[in-house]
Predict the structure.
Amino acid sequence: MKALLQRVREARVEIAGETVGAIGAGLLVLVCAEQGDGTAEADRLLAKILRLRIFSDAAGKMNRSLQDIDGRGTPGGLLLVSQFTLAADTRGGNRPSFTGAAPAQEGRRLYDHLLAEAGRLHAPGPVQAGRFGADMRVHLVNDGPVTIPLQVGPASA
């Protein structure tokens, strides 16, 4: 699985003018299931997202995770958005190929699994989501900016 993490001050997802997910300070995560990925890859990706130390401590060093963004045990928000275009292969010309992405049914299953596990493991932190396969508008105020690519699974072996 691939993900692109963006540390944000706030972020929201709109579909047809309606806000379907919104967070304050935390992480906006664009996520893509690839061919061969399963729940084990989704679980490893989520564990990394929750523990990655990319929030500043009192000295300004990236020393805090999403689960303790202020040093007092306060979890940050997590906004998960499915984005199959992270699987783009641009080596063959000017039109990207997305054949590396998991089939839609499998991608949805893994995205739903990721959301359910995030809700369970990140509690009481807020977990919000876009809508799989929808035409979404993602709004964010990037913090830093800090943008981190992650990849786990067969494609990263």
